[in-house]
Amino acid sequence: MKTITSKFDQVLNASTTYGNVNHEPDSSKEQQRNTPEKSMPFSDQIGNYQRNKGIPTKSYDNSKIYIVGSGIAGLSAAYYFIRDGHVPASNITFIEQLSIDGGSLDGAGNAKDGYIIRGGREMDMTYENLWDMFQDIPALEMPPPYSVLDEYRLINDNDPNYSKARLIHQQGVIKDFSKFGLAKKDQLAIIKLLLKKKEALDDITIEDYFSESFLSSNFWTFWRTMFAFENWHSLLELKLYMHRFLHAIDGLNDLSALVFPKYNQYDTFVTPLGRFLKDKGVKIQLNTLVKDLDIQINTDGKIVKGIITTVNDQEVNIPVGKDDFVIVTTGSMTEDTFYGDNNKAPIIAIDNRTSGQSAGWKLWKNLAAKSDVFGKPEKFCSNIEKSSWESVTLTCRPSALVDKLKEYSVNDPYSGKTATGGIITITDSSWLMSFTCNRQPHFPDQPDDVLVLWVYALFMDKEGDYIKKRMPACTGNEILAELCYHVGIIDQLDQVVENTIVHTAFMPYITSMFMPRAKGDRPRVVPAGCKNLGLVGQFIETNNDVVFTMESSVRTARIAVYELLNLNKQVPDINPLQYDIRHLLKATKTLNDNKSFLGEGLLRNILKGTYFEHILPVGEAEESPESFIVEQVNKFKDWIKGIKG
């Protein structure tokens, strides 16, 4: 590879940076200052300057890459090995336990038997790594040279997302969702949480910190149902989310901050990315279970020597050479999914004695048994009652439910445009049930007269309000009855059942990544001492990013490739909008339900008529006790004018 940079040898040989790049800079610890020693961008400096291609310090033409798991993290790792590592695609092999790629990003079925999607994707414009990759992946439906990002922008730029029925209650009545309803003490608690050091929040839950008034506010209803947080989840993760999405807080109630794909998550992302990789020559070995890694651990570090697999009930060991690399997705949020349908419940009982025993968790547990650097998987997979929820996919022919849906949609659901604009939450549902109708068709082959709806609920331990059973014990038709009751059409249930195919999915670990944690519970992307092993996915420690997003999976993959190959390229930290004074001021006013915050009048008076006036949040300042201060400032301004005059 020296020929690539041969004309720059004089500079590179004298550089202290070349070959010594910090591949995962941390913006929460960096004081941004330009110095002669500062040659690379600031840790969260985003933009086209970061679009340089990585240059390997040596050739990897003979290196083999084994990627365990073909979810979005594994697929992304393959992409970055090819694009920035210059690894031949034919050298890359996926080892997948399932019979299909995609991991948790699933989407399958047909109109006759019913469609199923275990989850959906609420996307953000600041997913720098995701869009970095998908701006290069050929589009699903547009011709070359257009990309997945081009398709995504085309539809979202021209079909804005918002909700007109974010909350409903009293058998289908739209509830006022214009206010957060946060008491002053709860607003202050949020501010104090943002100011706290991450290191001070180990193993603390949300309900340990926040008061009952916060937990019963509209704000928390919006937040918990949009992001799937429970009261007993990690306060640290909530803090990271608040920093990550601070710029979107004024779109939290009406969901106007979100952008959605045209189709389901599998067809939108996995299909084009998988097609790109396969066309390049990447290989995929399905129906292969990886049980463990043979790792040599000594004073020189930790080196993977082999991959221990099971194929057709036979143990097969794959040797790993000294120049080869292994990428492993640890844990799984959708492992051990139980399925049901119209007439069958997915699961009757939850048994923690069997938790964390499936393949995805066992591999991580086997790694953790070798060294503390591989984390503590039991922190995340040992309490199903607190990490599970159930989702439901409805394949709907015209019915009373579809008619009711039209009342809640911003456009006709059959129009191809934004329908509900995101989830509609039933606030007086004992299950805390939410449902959504995304743009239709949700699948490319979906008939014109079919709609696909998605339903989920957070409270698995509660009896329903109409069906007096816990949700996992209910058949699909019983869940449909509970939904019809809450939207006020229970008298038309028979007609709805006749025209609706129901598929249910109970997922024991779906929010396991949110469980309270401490430093060291999650491994780093490249754990200390590892020479040829990278860990990726939702249970990996990064500096400031959150979990339960596609972006976090792509980030871990990108870091793994850059770190293992020691590329002269960084993975930028999360988008720095949390430090932008405009978003800080906007968030302060939004949390106060758009009432004036302390000092706003003074700030407006100072900035009025200046270049910086636009940084202030929309609206005017109300009269407040600070008016005396404003009066004194005006007198001071008049005095200054007098001197200048």
From TrEMBL:
Record key words, sorted: Lyase
Recorded GO molecular functions are:
oleate hydratase activity
The record's annotation in InterPro entries points to: FAD/NAD-bd_sf, Oleate_hydratase
- Please list the residue ranges that the record marks as compositionally biased, kind Basic and acidic residues: 23-36
Q: State which Enzyme Commission number(s) the record gives.
A: 4.2.1.53
Task: Identify the Pfam families for this entry.
Answer: MCRA
Span list, region Disordered: 16-48
| Superkingdom classification of source | Bacteria
Determine if Lyase is one of this entry's keywords. yes
* NCBIfam families with a match to the protein in the record: PRK13977.1
Name recorded for this polypeptide: Oleate hydratase
Q: Which organism is it from?
A: Chitinophaga nivalis
